[in-house]
Specification:
twelve-stranded mixed β-sheet, about 15% helix, 4 helices, about 200 residues
Length: about 200
Amino acid sequence: MFLRHVIVFSFIALLAGCAGLTSREAVQGKGDPAQWREHKQQLSSLDGWQINGKVGIRAPKDSGSGTLFWLQRQDYYDIRLSGPLGRGAARLTGRPGAVALEVANQGRYEAKTPEELLQDQLGWRLPVSHLVWWVRGLPAPDSKSKVTLDGDSRLASLDQDGWQVEYLSYVEQNGYWLPERVKLHGQDLDVTLVIKDWQPRKLGQ
C-alpha cells in the first residue's frame, strides 16, 4: 500500500531541533577518541543541508524503495519522496510541534510530532527524532549509545535505543566527512539510505 510505504519512509526525515552534545556514550573500536570528539563537534555545528539520494525499507509485510530529497533549515524540514515505491509522490514538512504529510491523490495527514504520526498511522514506536543526528554520523545526545569507531575515527557502527546503525561509506563535502551509505536495523524493520549528493550548511552563524 502506497500510503503505508510513504509513512514508513517518512521517518527518515521526521526531525527535532538540534541539542548540545553529551557524553552518554561508550566508545570502542580502532579510532582515536580525541579525534572522534573533534569530528563530532564539527558535525554538530551543521544545522542545514540538502540531500538527494535513495531509501529502501524491508519489513515483514512491507518493502519498497524510492528517491529522497531532504531540505533541512535548522528546525524546519521539507522532505520529498517519489519513485517506484508506489503510485505517486509525497511531501513531508514541519518543525517541532507541527508535522504534515501530503500524499498525491490520497490526502493530508497532520500530527504534533513525528513519533505521533507513525504511532497513529501504523501503530509503531520508532526513535525517529534521532535520525537528524544519525544521518550526520552522530549518536543522538539524549540517550545512551555504544559507538564503534573506524580507523579514521568516524562511526563504523552505533547501537542506540534498540537500533543498530551501520556506516558503510563516507564522502567528503566542503571539508566535512559525511555518511554516504547507511543501514539501520530495528525490530522487524531494516532501512537502507544511499546519499548521492550532500550539501551541508552552517546557518546559525
